[in-house]
């Protein structure tokens, strides 16, 4: 029997391992099963290069729970270890057997798929164990089986033992603080989380818990649309079918595979973030992929797998690692290329999906300049009235004659709520203007950003001014009222609307236009909208009163009737009702003012 002290730089490493090696204690099962997979893959590599000439037989890995003995046993039929290898790889903490093996057999068989770093990963077992045993027998001819035992102190013992088959059994004697891991459901849940797609069969209580060949490890040419859809169901059993997907398959200058799915997302923003899982050689790492996947694609679903990202990832690692930055840029490019291809090859289908993908595209254009360059060609503007779709250049061609202002800027007229803003949309359409729909939650920020990025483009909401002023900001019609009548009308409106934030002006518009039009200036309204969403540093804007312009259409026939009315009290009520109707159309009439309007309306109808 050999006895000794584990060779570590400090005797305090075990408390550190127990408490701080991993934030989640259930990670121990991932590490030990991953090591078992490594050992199995090593054996397959040795067989493929002719070093192992025996019968591989079953390579299933088993996880066994014994509640009475308070043990969890992880068993494999991989390469096993000799006494010398146990001494080297177990007693010398942090010396990586897997790393050495990969260097030797790089590019041969399954050697490239060695998952882990056997040193510290194995010691995660002491986070939950009062004692750990290793019973192992090497694949090498005439190898002597050995048993290693340690109670979590630097002291260990290593002795010869009997074992009929090659491979390794790791027996964890669960400590009192960790007896939660003696629950069968808990173990099954952990295995399904971390080992769901490992490449070697994993069995727990005689049931295989993993799919060894998930869709992303296959070549795109080997998969049908049904295969992709079925894998999505496997990942998200209760989700609606995805719109489409992107298969990632890169081996240079970094390794990356995976499938990203575009779920159906509309303006109501039924988001489910953190639905992309990161794997390393089919071992689950994390579903917090913020630094790996571009921010605007965090709403996607699916799997990415890269052996270039270690299992023990940290935020600081992800932020600084060059491979992670390359992966991030590659995913952005692949998504842009896929959307561009869809737009060019089947525009009708792309337009049908636009409602669901607009959010991704707009957010990406705001946050990723490289994506913006490509996306400007397939970003769509949807016409509110006709249902037509335009790219920016198509919209410019269709509207340049009527919607170019004096500064030579293209004015994109938009509605955020086409139903509520219907009267404004109709008035603009009557003048030949094309109004587009911008009603997602990112549009307030999007239009601000695009005004900076797109050359000679200005966005104006359709209710920001009277139709005649939306483009050139000049009234062209002349009032039919006399100076005396205009003065009387101004007086009536002034008496009824003595509010500092409502500016009343008379203009000679078309007789068919509304008698009173309420508009809110584009700049102030936009700032208030962004502040209300928390998107503006000047959040105090949200609490400020609206700056309202009330344009009285002096050419509407109703004013001839009102001004001929001899009853001053009735005139005041009629004018106030017209003003309130205009305010109501903009959702600016509430509370006591709304109640008074209803009562006044009933009264006026009674007078008729």
Automatic annotation (TrEMBL):
Q: Which residues bind ATP?
A: 31, 35, 76, 81, 96-97, 168, 315
| One Pfam family this sequence matches | HATPase_c_3
Keywords per UniProt? ATP-binding, Chaperone, Cytoplasm, Nucleotide-binding, Stress response
Task: Give the GO molecular function terms.
Answer: ATP binding; ATP hydrolysis activity; ATP-dependent protein folding chaperone; unfolded protein binding
Q: Which residues form the signal peptide?
A: none
Q: Which family does it belong to?
A: Belongs to the heat shock protein 90 family.
The protein, known as? Chaperone protein HtpG
Provenance organism: Chitinophaga barathri
By which gene is this protein encoded? Answer: htpG
């Amino acid at each position: 029997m050999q006895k000794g002290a584990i060779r570590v730089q400090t005797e305090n490493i075990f408390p550190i391992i127990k408490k701080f090696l991993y934030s989640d204690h259930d990670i121990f099962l991932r590490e030990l099963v991953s090591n078992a997979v490594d050992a199995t893959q090593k054996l397959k590599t040795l067989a493929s290069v002719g070093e192992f000439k025996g019968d591989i037989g079953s390579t299933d890995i088993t996880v066994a729970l014994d509640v009475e003995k308070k043990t969890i046993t992880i068993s494999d039929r991989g390469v096993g270890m000799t006494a010398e290898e146990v001494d080297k790889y177990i007693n010398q903490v942090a010396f990586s057997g897997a790393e050495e093996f990969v260097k030797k057999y790089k590019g041969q068989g399954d050697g490239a798929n060695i998952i882990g770093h056997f040193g510290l990963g194995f010691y995660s077992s002491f986070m939950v164990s009062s004692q750990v045993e290793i019973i192992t027998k090497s694949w090498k001819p005439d190898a002597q089986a050995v048993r290693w035992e340690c109670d979590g102190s630097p002291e260990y013992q290593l002795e010869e033992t009997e074992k009929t088959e090659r491979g390794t059994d790791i027996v964890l004697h669960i400590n009192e603080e960790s007896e939660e891991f003696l629950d069968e459901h808990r173990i099954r849940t952990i295995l399904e989380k971390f080992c769901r797609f490992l490449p070697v069969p994993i069995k727990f209580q005689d049931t295989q818990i993993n799919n060894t060949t998930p869709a992303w490890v296959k070549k795109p040419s080997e998969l049908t649309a049904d295969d992709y859809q079925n894998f999505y169901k496997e990942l998200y059993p209760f989700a609606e079918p995805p719109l489409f997907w992107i298969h990632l398959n890169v081996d240079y200058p970094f390794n990356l595979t995976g499938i990203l799915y575009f779920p159906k997302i509309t303006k109501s923003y039924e988001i489910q973030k953190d639905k992309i899982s990161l794997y390393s050689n089919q071992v689950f790492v994390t579903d917090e992929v913020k630094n790996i996947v571009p921010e605007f694609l965090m709403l996607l679903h699916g799997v990415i797998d890269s052996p270039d990202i270690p299992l023990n990832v940290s935020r600081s690692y992800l932020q600084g690692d060059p491979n992670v930055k390359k992966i991030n840029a590659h995913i952005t490019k692949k998504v842009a290329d896929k959307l561009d291809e869809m737009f060019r090859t089947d525009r009708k289908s792309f337009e049908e999906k636009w409602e669901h993908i607009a959010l991704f595209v707009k957010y990406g254009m705001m946050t990723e300049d490289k994506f913006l360059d490509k996306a400007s060609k397939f970003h769509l503007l949807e016409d509110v009235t006709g249902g037509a779709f335009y790219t920016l250049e198509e919209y410019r061609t269709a509207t340049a004659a009527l919607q170019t202002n004096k500064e030579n800027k293209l004015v994109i007229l938009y509605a955020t709520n086409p139903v509520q803003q219907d009267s404004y949309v109709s008035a603009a359409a009557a003048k030949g203007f094309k109004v587009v729909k911008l009603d997602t939650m990112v549009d307030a920020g999007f239009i601000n950003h695009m005004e900076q990025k797109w050359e000679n483009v200005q966005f104006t909401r359709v209710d920001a001014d009277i139709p005649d002023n939306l483009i050139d900001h000049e009234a062209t019609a002349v009032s039919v009222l006399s100076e005396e009548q205009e003065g009387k009308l101004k007086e009536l409106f002034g008496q009824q609307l003595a509010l500092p934030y409502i500016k009343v002006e008379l203009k000679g518009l078309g007789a068919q236009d509304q008698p009173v039009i309420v508009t809110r200036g584009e700049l102030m309204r936009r700032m208030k909208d962004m502040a209300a969403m928390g998107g503006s540093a000047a959040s105090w804007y949200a609490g400020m009163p609206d700056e309202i312009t009330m344009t009285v259409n002096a050419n509407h026939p109703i004013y001839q009737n009102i001004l001929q009315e001899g009853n001053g009290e009735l005139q005041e009520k009629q004018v106030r009702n017209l003003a309130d109707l205009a305010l109501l159309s903009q959702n600016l009439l509430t509370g006591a003012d709304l109640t008074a309007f209803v009562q006044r309306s009933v009264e006026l109808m009674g007078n008729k």
